[in-house]
Amino acid sequence: MQQMTHTFNKGTVALYSEPSVKAEHADEALYGQNCAILEEKDGFFKVYTDYGYQAFVPKEDLSEGIYETNYAIKKPFADLLPKPENCALSGLTLPMGALVFVDSSFEHERYAAVKAIDGETYYVHKMALTPKFSVTDDREKLAALSEEEKTALREKIAAVALGLMDTQYRWGGKTAAGIDCSGLCFLSYHMNGIHLYRDAVFDKCAVLKEITLSEAKKGDLLYFPGHVAMYLGNGDYVHSTSAFDGVCLNSFNPYSPIYREVLAKELLHVGTAF
User: Fold this and answer.
1) pTM score, two decimals?
2) Beta carbons of 237 and 229 less than 8 angstroms apart
3) How far is 55 from 101, CA to CA, in rounded Å?
4) Cα–Cα distance between 171 and 193 in angstroms, integer?
């Protein structure tokens, strides 16, 4: 395990496959997440993120040191305001999953005070926040949950994905501004405390065990060549696809109006964390 030493300091930070902004947009890190520095090259750092992904990031998008956080953003986006008034222009906008430090000494009916990475104080609506959660890829821990707990968790995972319906497709994206197939699944699980591998590669996702499609339940994952989707039940699934420019529903049922034959014929793996 790498020692985390730096913090991503922008709402959404683009990660690249090579040290160039013209390289493949491989992933997006979120404000408040941490990373380790592996090397420096041409104005970029190669980083190892706290969720186990390696890529290049412009040096200015990182702050040295670990930003202590206690809350996460739970809405698709949340504005951080320079004063606790809804008429104020946003000083910083953060996506779902971004991490912040909330100063509990500030008391207000609607707003919480956030101490930002740069030391500035901003204000965010309390309805945009959820307490920071731990993230696990321990399959045994998840398997030990009761059936009621598993069902509730499956519903919450699917709810995140469905809440991003019609979000545009963006290769390497992981927010409501644009998201790809693995970003959708990663974020849906991450917001519910489960760590998935960032890319659509079944064999690298330690938390999953393989099952058959007939065994699949809501929230389980469907892997195709270079693609991943989330099963919803009754043959339907949600995914982000460039074919339809974003998050949409399709089905394995040939009699369904949302049947997609090409994917029905290319299913490689079905995985569950439960």
Assistant:
1) 0.94
2) yes
3) 26
4) 24
Find the CATH number of the domain harbouring 202.
3.90.1720.10
Residue 35 designated active-site:
no
269 is catalytic: no
State the average pLDDT over residues 212-235.
98
Structure tokens that stand for 250 in this block:
């399709």
25 is catalytic: no
Q: Which of 25, 185, 227, 248 is catalytic?
A: 227
Q: In the prediction, which pLDDT does 71 show?
A: 97
Overall domain count for the chain: 3
> Which of 35, 181, 185, 205 does the annotation list as catalytic?
181
What tens digit of pLDDT does each residue of 46-83 get? 999 999 999 999 999 999 999 999 999 999 999 999 99
CB 214 within 8 A of CB 220: no
> For the chain, what percentages of helix, strand and coil (3-state, to nearest 5) are there?
20, 40, 45
Domain boundary among 131, 150, 181: 131
> Token pair of 35, please?
């990373």
Residues 19 and 59 in one domain: yes
Report which secondary-structure segment, H or E, holds 94.
Answer: strand 92-95
